[in-house]
Design brief:
It contains 15 helices and no strands. It is mainly alpha-helical.
């Protein structure tokens, strides 16, 4: 396998040098901030990622204030006590995208968030304690116990709440394949995910960098080199 030093060097050349690449990095993962994140914000991000899946993100972003109002600011306990007519009413609510299956996932994920919070104090504390060396296990848990949180939706949820992990985007997978990892062009199987995890674990040990940085640098080292202008 290609060392991460080689991948970073290629990314630096593509992006105008080491300092320019550093400016493209996201914020460093902050476990204390993640542990303090309210369960309502976790559920809100779950909902946003579910509704964005297969849909234009700009449309969801533009309607988000309406989502916040319609879903009672995503307070899990409050949502869990709402009667059936509340949920049926959302199917006619123009403030949100009226997708029945996705609307019902909010109710199911409200219960999921409460279950995890009861077990660990809060969902944020649960995430803060989960090691990035086992993202595959966390994604599996989200798939099994949550609603519509499998695949890339789960990965994007973790990224947006600030958990330190990789994302198997098209460019990241291309980088991994170019480095010599034997995986499909679209990482969907558990076997391929395990290979990706093992490789990021190796690169994390090699570099000491957060997994979020490794994933981002990997993506910037391949694909179309888009202009900032």
């Amino acid at each position: 396998m290609t060392s991460f030093k080689t991948i970073r060097t290629r990314a630096e050349k593509r992006k105008g040098g080491s300092k320019a690449l550093d400016k493209l990095m996201p914020d460093k993962p902050d476990l204390k901030r993640l542990a303090r994140l309210g369960d309502d914000r976790i559920l809100a991000e779950m909902t946003k990622r579910v509704f964005c899946a297969g849909f234009a993100w700009s449309v969801i972003d533009a309607k988000w204030d309406g989502f916040e109002d319609a879903f009672l600011r995503f307070q899990p306990a409050k949502l869990s006590f709402q009667p059936e007519d509340y949920w049926e009413g959302l199917l006619r609510d123009a403030r949100i995208v009226r997708n029945g299956a996705k609307i019902m996932s909010v109710r199911e994920n409200a219960a999921f968030v409460q279950e995890i919070a009861k077990e660990h104090g809060s969902f944020g504390k649960f995430l803060a304690q989960w090691p990035p060396s086992n993202e595959v296990g966390l994604l599996d848990l989200l798939t099994r116990r949550g609603s519509r949180l499998g695949g890339n939706t789960g990965q994007m949820l973790l990224r947006f709440v600030g958990w330190d992990g990789f994302v198997t985007s098209k460019d990241v997978v291309a980088c991994l394949r170019d480095a010599g990892l034997d995986i499909a062009e679209e990482v969907k199987s558990k076997g391929d995910l395990a290979k990706v995890q093992a490789q990021f674990n190796a690169w994390a040990e090699e570099t000491g960098l957060p997994y979020t940085y490794l994933s981002r640098i990997c993506a910037l080292s391949v694909g179309e080199n888009r202009s900032e202008h």
